[in-house]
Amino acid sequence: MFRTHQRSDFRGGITVCGIFGYVGGKSAAKEIVQGLQALTYRGYDSAGVAVQNDYGTQIKKGVGAISEIAGVASLRGKVGVGHTRWATHGEVSVNNAHPFSYGGYTVVHNGIIENYAELKRELTAKGYVFQSQTDSEVIVMLLHFYREYPLLTALRKTVERLTGSYAIVALSDRDKGSIVCTRKNSPLIIGLGKEETFISSDVPALYGKAYQYTPLNEGDFVWVHMGGISFYHGETEVFPKLYSVNENASCHEKRGYAHFMRKEIGEVPNAVNNTLTLLRGQEIALKRVFSNATRVLLTGCGTAFHAAVFGKYLLSRALKIPTQAEVASELRYSGEKVEKSCVCIAITQSGETADTLRLLQSLKKQGHKKLIVITNTPRSSVTAFADITLLTGAGPEIGVAATKSFTSQLAAFTFIVQALSGERGEFITLPKLLTKTLQLESETKEIARELQGQKSVFFLGRDLDYPLALEGSLKLKEVSYLFSDGYAAGELKHGTLALIEKGTPVIVCLTQPRLAEKTLNALHEVSCRGAKVFLITQYEKYSGVLGVEKCLLLPPSSPHLAPLLLSVPLQFLAYHTAVLMGRNPDRPRNLAKSVTVE
Ligand code: F6R
Questions:
Q1: Protein residue closest via CA to atom 8 of ligand 1
Q2: Is the pLDDT confidence value at 426 over 70?
Q3: Is 187 left (phi over 0), alpha (psi -120 to 50) or beta?
Q4: pLDDT-based confidence at 87, cuts 50/70/90?
Q5: Which residues are catalytic?
Q6: % of residues, the chain, pLDDT over 70
């Protein structure tokens, strides 16, 4: 039976795809489908469910999200596992969908098996016949190869052969009623309900199901069966610390909105308010880490990198020491020496992005003690490497495109700067201002009508508006599939201006009065070449500037807060353009929320 013990070092983390498993008294298929629905943001190229009963294990799988897979409801049994896939090895097809089975063994896998080609050759020589192009199928073959051992031992022997990252959940018809699992560099969580156990890739999928959970540590093995659960680290039995599951099932409901993305943009004011509340009390720790700092290095990927660029501008001005923002995947292998007096700030909503994790892991290994992590996910893998974890309070974000989490990251930087300078008060007004900004939705939709179907769209901004221009562009291309680019407004004339033609939409972001005239120069340069210019600013005096097709007026606010307000219409713009173009903004093609392979 399950016993507890204080041990909570949750480490590692490369994953794509979502896993959900069940052992208990209810219909496993029903529980797993609900779990996978909550994990769909991790990938939806294909999905599948395996359910075991007295007669064996049956599998239903196919291309698309779990809601599109036929026949799953017909699976009878109280033990099972499911998977929702974001393809890394092998095309999107039924054959490459998980679960995989062989000779009574069934497996789902997240991660990448780097030595799969070599293992595949070896197993093929032994007579195993592969059905898929995936790296994952070697796992089920290896389990079968070790079939003389009990299932858990077979799993231990299997992972000894694997190089790479994995979260593996396996069943066997020889050990009916049991599930075994393990992980390395890919998260896996055990959830405890009333006489039922869940296995999940993340905590929100457990909402409304489990009361407590424990994240598996690297190298842990778990045997779940009808009589209870046994945890092992390697071969030693361990008793992990349990955390309570925050019952916040509403994040998985659209609550009357057509899409999660729309709902989550509406939650921006709350997310920022929660973030500022959560960060209170971190001032002393921040001052300690920044004392004697000679440099600040900020990093992240995608949207999180744009937050890093925003932080760079704010911190360089406040601290007057060199600050630099680098994409995590580049910085990791750049060979750049990061001296001990350099404060490194990593931003990651999920806390599981492999590029960011690997970088932090290597800095930690070198003995770095000034590592700050800004994440939206408590106890995510990245927190294991942090000297200070700053939690944003956006709550689970289900839409694949980051919205409320991005604005919360910007709020975290506003907090850091105020904490270091000892200034107070300004951001208390932020949630109210953001609520007011939401009222710009219908005007933003008018601009979205002008963007739909265009060949390309450009976003311009200088200084603190530059990362917002980058983010506005990323958001638009990600959910609408229109080509777009974000530019430092002064840089356009050095080449990209050649792409501006009659009718090209250009979104100009202008919230920084210091450089307003310079930004207006760029505005005139594009408008006199025929561009359709849409201006977003908090300064009414610029709304009538020659060449501006339409101006979105943000609520009056200081230049420090205005970029946070600006993030809202940019998110609306991407959302409404995508909807007008018939895209599903919650599930942009080819993407997954936790893109966590290097
Ligand atoms: C875009 C988006 C991605 C993520 C990036 C990093 O909307 O969400 O660009 O920002 O994959 O993810 P995290 O923040 O989880 O490290």
A1: 402
A2: yes
A3: beta
A4: confident
A5: 17, 593
A6: 95
Best residue among 350, 352, 391, 596 to mutate for probing ligand 1's pocket (most ligand atoms within 8 Å of CB) is: 350
Q: Give the DSSP per-residue string, 212-246.
A: EEEEPPTTEEEEEETTEEEEEETTEEE----EE--
3-state secondary structure of 540: helix
Ligand 1 atom with the smallest distance to the CA of 375 is: 14
Q: Which are the contacts of 21, defined by CB distance < 8 A and separation ≥ 6?
A: 32, 80, 81, 82, 108, 169, 179, 181, 198, 199, 200, 224
Say whether pLDDT at 325 is over 60: yes
C-alpha R_g of the chain = 25
Helices (H), 391-499: 404-421, 430-437, 441-451, 465-480
Measured on CA atoms in the order 204, 310, 43, 167, is the torsion positive or negative? negative
The DSSP line for 320-343 is -S-EEEEEHHHHHTS-----TTEE
For 246-263, what is each residue's pLDDT tens digit?
766 667 778 889 999 999
**The pLDDT of residue 90:** 79
pTM for the full model?
0.79
How many C-alpha atoms does 66 have within 13 Å on its Cβ side? 32
Q: Is there an atom of ligand 1 within 6 Å of 329 CB? A: no
The two structure tokens encoding residue 96: 């490459």
pLDDT at position 597: 62
Look at 44 and 129; give whichever has higher pLDDT: 129
Does ligand 1 lie within 6 Å of residue 303's CB atom?
yes
| Ligand 1 neighbour 350 (Cβ under 6 A) | yes
Residues ≥6 apart with Cβ < 8 Å to 241: 4, 5, 6, 7, 8, 214
pLDDT greater than 50 at residue 314: yes
How many C-beta atoms lie closer than 10 Å to residue 579's C-beta?
Answer: 20
pLDDT digits 0-9 by tens, 508-532 = 999 999 999 999 999 999 999 999 9
Q: What confidence category does residue 6 fall into, taking pLDDT thresholds of 50, 70 and 90?
A: very low
Per DSSP, the residues of 113-158 read ETTHHHHHHHHHHTT-----S-STHHHHHHHHHTTTS-HHHHHHHH
Distance between CA atoms of 579 and 452, rounded to whole angstroms?
Answer: 9
Rounded to 10 degrees, what is the CA torsion of 207, 213, 214, 215?
-10
Ligand 1 pocket residue status of 302, Cβ below 6 Å: yes
pLDDT surpassing 50 at residue 8 = no
Q: Output the CA angle 60-65-71, nearest 5 degrees.
A: 30
C-alpha 4 – ligand 1 centre gap (Å): 34
Give the separation between CA 567 and CA 11, rounded to whole angstroms: 33
Q: Which residue has the higher pLDDT, 490 or 592?
A: 490
- State the distance from the centre of ligand 1 to the C-alpha of 405, rounded, in angstroms: 9
* Length, in residues, of the chain: 598
Query: For residues 310 and 416, is the Cβ–Cβ distance under 8 A?
Result: no
**Whether the CB of 401 sits within 6 Å of ligand 1:** yes
Mean pLDDT taken over the chain = 92
Distance 453 CA to ligand 1 centre (A): 25
Question: What digits encode the pLDDT tens for the residues 23-64?
Answer: 999 999 999 999 999 898 888 889 999 999 999 999 999 999
> Using CA positions, which residue lies closest to atom 7 of ligand 1?
401
How far is it, in rounded angstroms, from Cα 94 to Cα 96?
5
Q: Is 304 in the pocket of ligand 1 (CB under 6 A)?
A: yes
User: Residue 11: its pLDDT value, please?
Assistant: 29
